Sequence to fold (632 residues):
Amino acid sequence: MSTILLIEQLLNGLQFGVMLFLMAAGLTLIFGVMGLINLAHGSLYMVGAFAAAGVAGWTGSFALALVASLAAAAMFGALIELTVIRRLYKRDHLDQVLATFALILIFSEGTRWAFGSFPLFLNIPDILSGTVMLPGGIEYSLYRLTIIGIGLAVAAGLFLLISKTRVGMRIRAGENDREMISALGVDISVLYTLVFALGAALAGLSGALVGAIQSVEVGMGEPVLILAFVVIVIGGIGSIKGALAGAILVGVTDTMGRTLLPVIFGSFMDPSAATSVGSALASMLIYILMAGVLVFKPTGLFGQA
Amino acid sequence: MLRETHVNALILLALLAVPLGALVLDQPFIITLATKVTILALAGVGLNLALGQGGLVSFGHAIFFGLGGYSMGILASHAQSFTPLMEVPFVIPGTNLMPVIWIVAIAVSCLAALVVGALSLRTSGVYFIMVTLAFGQMFYYFAISWPAYGGEDGLSIYVRNQFPGLNTLVPIQFFGLCFAVLCAVLFLVSRLNKSAFGLALTGAHYSPVRAMSVGIEVTRLRLVAFVISGGITGLAGALFADLNRFVSPTMFSWHTSGEIIIFIILGGVARLCGPIAGAAAYIILEQYLGGFSEYWQIYLGLILLFVVLFAQGGLIGSLSKREIVRG
Fold:
């Protein structure tokens, strides 16, 4: 296995991790501020991807498609927050899980009804297609590199938003003491809707960006949602820093595992058995990683006890 | 308003009466549907022990349902092809005898529940939900990527497995068998709930600190409950595989876990016969709405949303007077 291929896979892992971060950040923010577990977050990812594919098909502009994905996901996010989610803040987690599971059913079937069962395709824009030459003679997809850039920029923006701005101050205050901040005259329900819409927009953006690499189809959100849960368990709930570290760890581990494990097993087994054992084990690797974190630090790497 | 035990008796009688009526009217499809309700209810009864009694919101019970299914699939496929399951260090042949398959399914599920439970119970609350969901996904991907037993395509078993003294291919006889298993498990679970173990489990659900302070080892108690719960759901998985004569990775999917939770919620959390009422309601909705619209799950979602937001206590809760305090 050549070093170039290895570095390429490392970058792919980073790109995957950055995407997971956009999902996990929204989930962890929503949990941190409102104490809500939102299974429908994957549906918002799907909404973003479908909005982008729809607008790109209609206007042909990728930039407009990204804007549409942000807007549509934020809008649907605010809509479900106002109609359903806000009734769940005081309920137990079982009710939250079920109500958001019901929302998944409604979103998935609604999308199937509106767009049909066939996957849509979102093309990579011309200026971002092709490859770039990285130092060291590595040719790498420009689009994936752009995703990494966008993801890291969003991460930086989120850190600034939360640590430097007034809204961020309120979000942090909301995480610490809900009643106190509403007693101080902050309209907590507006803040909740805002945080939910922000998380939804991040999920939608993530869906649109990934939609151009994979196909846009109903049910695309749930596998990513569960991976984002793995990220949160590893990183620690409620922590944006943990979400970033966990996401990159999961992204890189998964991608490298799929490349390396069959090769490693191939060194002492016959090739066909090595491929099947290696790929089966690779599909379990991040969950084993999660189990390891649970054994040594059940609150996650950056979580507070 | 009725007492819950009366409601339970009515539910079991209805579950028995429908297929008998269908037998008289010669409607084998209805008998199959009733069998499906019975088996899915059994899976729900298993989860209800952990979720209702123990307050452990497991979103990973598809693991045990799937393992039960694959226990049947693997054993029966070896019996079907006359190849041993394992030759070294000793020969294990396949089998098509249900009692043997059930024991294997229960043992395998209990073992998996022990490992998954021991890891997941290091966390609680929302974490527990996410961790069980993630482990479920691990088994799902493993079943897809492991090529030996059909991989993504699943595994077909051409002849239903045998039970001594019965012809399991006759729908009503297979229903009777499943119904008897369900009743036996219900009896065991009701005894368990009333035992010191069950009371401690409920106590630990509503007030873990108080339970701990009177000397109950909460985590160990929950782990035992989780293992029993997994074993019951595993048995249901083996029966479900026998009903369809087919196993596939779908049995492991997170959607299956969600459906098992829905049976409990529709019927009523921590109610002994809640999962039966819930599974019956689910299958009736599926049949009725499925004929009415291709997108029936939208309506299912709306109904579920309504039940969660406005009608806590489920079907049994609205029929019987005992109110259950929810934590």
Remarks:
- The two ends of chain B are 24 Å apart (CA to CA).
- The interface with chain A takes residues 51, 57, 59, 119-120, 122-123, 125-127, 129-131, 133-135, 137-138, 141-142, 144-148, 254, 258, 261-262, 265, 269, 295-298, 300-302, 304-305, 308-309, 312, 326-327 of chain B (CB under 8 Å).
- Strands of chain B lie at 155-156, 246-247.
